[in-house]
Design goal:
Rossmann fold; alpha/beta; single chain; Isopropylmalate Dehydrogenase; disordered N terminus; 11 helices; about 45% helix; globular
Length: about 325
């Protein structure tokens, strides 16, 4: 079976082909129930039902039951056999979704029609039981027609101005995801505007520190190098012209951005100017969290769900291994 991370060895492939393989791999992993938190819009409810119909997960709808059933009835969506966990409003739905995950009744959470901050607040709250020693972070798993392999951009949605310690967690979260996707030793490019350390540019200092942290095993499972400008990270020709000697230059699997604004602009430029697609997932909690946008295509929504299923299966296997050790 060709893993998603190996498509670069096969020549250029389309986003449809890359995400198609990802979805096939996910369907072959452990079954999963997902708490869909406050699916009180047509888009949110359709997204959950589409993932169910593709065999990616069994949805548990968490929210006001009458509103959910009303949307389904008006839209011709059948809820036969679907579990609904009643919750009075979005805040209560977020809390109940987190509770279901802590109890092991669901393997992932999916954002419905509530604000992202509201859902994540229930996840990282001191009493939620879903926090880990890691900082939570968001990844975009990009399928770019002009790049010969998948590309992760992080963090473009949660951490606004991460500290060095937080960037370490953001980096490790993305590395662990690529291991699940079949890339045994990802190349991480820590981005900045330039490829040299400049004391006036804190992002270059953080990049250099992260590079050293990887050599000291504070970041594991990947080759990490920076600072690298975007062109040097993804183009061997650009790196060669600038005489940059780096094990990562021109072959990045992960782009670790300096802050949320840079990452968000980079991801959206690729989506809208190069016909790329971006599956989104939140990592670092005890369960993965599926974040989708109303503008996402069906394929992107399914790919985001597939990523969550693969991560949840890996987490469950690791937990079983610890219990039997």
């Amino acid at each position: 079976m060709v893993q998603l991370g190996q498509v670069g060895q096969l020549g250029q492939t389309t986003p449809a082909e890359r995400y198609g393989q990802l979805i096939k791999d996910a369907i072959g992993s452990m079954p999963m129930r997902v708490a869909v938190v406050h699916p009180c819009s047509l888009e949110a409810l359709q997204g959950a039902m589409e993932a169910r119909d593709e065999g990616l997960f069994e949805p548990v709808l968490v929210g006001p039951e009458n509103r959910i059933r009303g949307i389904a009835e008006r839209s011709g969506i059948s809820l036969q056999g679907v579990v609904i966990e009643p919750a009075e409003h979005s805040h209560a739905a977020a809390a109940r979704g987190a509770e279901l995950a802590v109890q092991g009744k669901v393997g992932a959470l999916m954002k419905g029609s509530l604000h992202t901050d509201e859902l994540l607040g229930a996840v990282v709250g001191s009493s939620s039981g879903l926090r880990t020693e890691r900082r939570i972070s968001h990844v975009y798993a990009m399928a770019i027609p002009t790049y010969p392999k998948p590309l992760i951009i992080t963090d473009a949605a949660i951490n606004i101005a991460p500290t060095l310690a937080q960037k370490r967690d953001i980096c490790q979260n993305a590395i662990d995801l690529l291991h699940v996707m079949g890339v045994p030793r990802p190349h991480v490019a820590v981005l900045a505007a330039v490829e040299t350390v400049n004391p006036a540019m804190p992002s270059t200092i953080d990049a250099a520190a992260l590079t050293v942290m990887a050599t000291r095993h504070q970041i594991t499972g990947a080759l990490v190098d920076g600072p690298l400008a975007f062109d040097n990270a993804i183009s061997m020709a650009a790196a060669s012209v600038k005489q940059i000697v780096s094990p990562v230059a021109g072959s990045a699997d992960i782009l670790l951005v300096p802050d949320l604004e840079a990452g968000n602009m980079l991801a959206k430029q690729l989506i809208y100017l190069s016909q790329s697609e971006a599956a989104g997932l939140v990592l670092g909690a005890r369960v993965p969290i599926i974040l989708t946008s109303r503008a996402d295509t069906l394929r992107v929504r399914l790919a985001s769900s597939a990523l969550a299923r693969l991560v949840a299966a890996r987490t469950k296997l690791a937990a079983v291994g610890k219990e039997s050790a």
